[in-house]
Design brief:
CATH superfamily: 5'-nuclease
Strand order of the largest sheet: 3-2-1-4-5
Number of helices: 7
Radius of gyration: 14 Å
Helix content: 40-55%
């Protein structure tokens, strides 16, 4: 089965039915995976919107087909990406998402248009 990596903005688009969620939930869309870092980011946003923490975690987690731990290889790669991503304002969470995509050689889906300015070994797809 085809897979792709979802960043926090993609997870939130589905959870909140924001613009772009139809792309991510269309029939035949690849299996969505995410770093636990990005699931935590989505949870934090849902909590800020008033969702109880446990419910927010379960909601964010239920959107992905599999959550991947943030491991040593992804940590090293996230640090390596900082020089390329800092000028664009990308966060550690953003770099964790990109690192998962790179280590697994999978495309990444995001709602953050600035990511298209990156030149990486993986495709980056905008959902809106």
């Amino acid at each position: 089965m085809n897979k792709c990596v979802l960043d926090a903005s993609a997870i939130l688009a589905i959870a909140l039915q924001e613009p772009g969620f139809a792309v991510l939930t269309a029939p035949g869309f690849p299996e969505g995976i995410a770093s636990v870092v990005n699931i935590a980011e989505a949870q934090a946003r849902l909590v800020k919107l008033g969702t109880p923490p446990r419910e927010a975690w379960e909601s964010a987690l239920s959107i992905v087909d599999r959550a991947y731990p943030f491991d040593e290889e992804q940590g090293r790669l996230s640090g390596t990406l900082v020089d390329q991503t800092r000028p664009l304002g990308l966060s550690l969470g953003d770099r964790a998402c990109l690192a998962l995509g790179i280590t697994m050689n999978l495309p990444v889906y995001t709602g953050d248009r600035i990511w298209k300015k990156l030149s990486l070994s993986i495709p980056i797809h905008l959902i809106r």
